Amino acid sequence: MGRVFGGWMLGGVSVLLAGGAGAADGVFELGTVEVVGSPVPSLDPAESVLKAEVLRRFSRDTLGDAVALTPGINLSRNSRNEDIVYLRGFDVRQVPLFIDGIPAYVPYDGYVDFGRFGTSDLAEVRVAKGAASLLYGPNTLGGAINLVSRKPRTALEGDLRAGVGSGGLQTYALNVGSNQGVWYFQLGASYADRKWYPLSSDFSARSVPTSATNGARKVLENGGHRENSYSSDSRLSFKLGLTPNVTDEYAIGYVRQDGSKGNPPYAGNAPGQYLNIGGGANSRFWRWPYWNLESAYFIGNIALGRDHMLKVRAYQDNYDNKILAYTDGSYTSLIANKTNFPSWYSDSTTGASVELASFAFSGHELALAAHYKEDKHADNGLSGTKNYRDVTTSLAAEDTIQLFELWRLRLGLSHDKRDAREVYYWPTGATSGTNWLVEVARSLDGGNEAYASAARKTRFPTIKDRYSARLGSALPNPDLKPEEALNFETGLKGRPWAGARGHAALFYSRIDNLMQAMNILPVSLCNQPGLSAATSCSQLQNIAKARHAGIELSIEQDLGRGWQVGGNYTYLDRENRSSDKPLTDTPRNRVFAYASWKPSDRWEYLGSVEAENGRMVAYGSGNAASYVKLSGHALANLKVVYKPLPAVALEGGASNILDANYALADGYPMPGRMWFANARYRF
Known about the structure:
By secondary structure, this protein is mainly beta.
């Protein structure tokens, strides 16, 4: 035991939270990137898997809150009231989101609001890190996050949930599925609506100048109910599958997500951030009347003889959203800048991938994959539609080799290319990148496993990176190259001693060709038709370098008599090697810990704590950005679950029960104490 424990401490740690008691949801295996029916164990040892039972246990109802359970991930909030996640310092453009293996990020800027995605219809969330499989396709610079949906296992199964909470919160969710042997279906529907969220009682009201010249002041945020913090989201998902034999499976799916939300106004003390001139800096009086996603897909797994499997994906995604910008916090008068507002985007993605897996060579799982993805963006301003179209392709090969009884090797190589086929006003361009990975894993006594990996990954610049004029203050750069990262990781996972489960990792990344805004002269280079003359001009260029390094430590321990404790710790050190500007939005130290007591099958008491030591954040943008260090915070959460019947669960509790006043972005305070109550029936 001493040797194993010592190896854990040297290896560093990242945790995989185990599910609580109760039946597990069936996993839609076609939604993973692994080959279904593979005779070679090809699981990524660095991958973290959050089961649906874990998400329910910790009341993680949105995707942002859910992935924050994973070591190495921290949640952030931007000025558009969006939940943004960082994985080991990489943002969501560099760690893309997938749904059943299909990319689900907005084509224009590569972002996606993790607060808009519910978790009620998921079987698991998979978080792959630095050496994430190349079979995912392009842009996995720092990893990938894959949402895997449910697949029914019995003739009739499902669950029904309803809940209420602070701020007028109402939540409802239904999941029902049936597996009839040769065919199955899965249906999910959910609705969540919140009128506002409460601020901490320690929050101080913010009053700011109403203009740059007079002494009048206006209260932007007076505490209590957070101004303009409403949100409403509904989601419908349906999947129909056919399993004609033990090897083949075909599924068609449809997802419809509709949302609307407000953008709480800036409520900080940074100078020059208050006014809403031309849409404002941070004091954005914005509302989204709709933020919608629609997706249809086909996934098939076909056996080609005894030694080959073919997996095919084809999909069509549509992203639509609209922003209304107002002159002040009364939200009654739209701003006069009609060149940019109202703003509505209509983005779409059409794509397909083909993966051929071969087991013809003993001890090998060789996979060859081809990806095609066409992204379209239409900016429908009142001055006319601005159309953009990108085509991204990728060829990848990955081989998992059982070297000896205890040793496993994974090798991968891919080449990706992105072409701008249609661009409004500016010239088109093209770029490409090559990726590779090497990973070795060894099985140890007691079910433990040690591993080490190295990977070179790239991330293409988005349409916004290359072509956004940023309201007339930026010069587009069609020739931007991909960002590059060299990721190293070593670790150990398994059971270090009796009753314990854990996962350990020590990681290091060197990032080159990072995009950074640089001032451009003369300023007139930014002048564009239909816009006022530029007063400043910047351009994104591949000039920055950075280094990310850290340790992830976590453990989960059964103590007996119904007690269980666990948690994880992440240490992340980031360095900007190109300038003295700090790298933002990630804390250096972050902790999550919990304790659970189940005195009987009917009762469970669960308490958890999340804490960080603060983070550097920016206000302003580009070269004009300034920086401030936010205070650290600790959040305590409590929950009680009562099961009057095995199929019925009643729960109540509170998040941030100590009412901490904290923020994840300058001027955007997070919720104070919030209570909730839920009822769930499982059949």
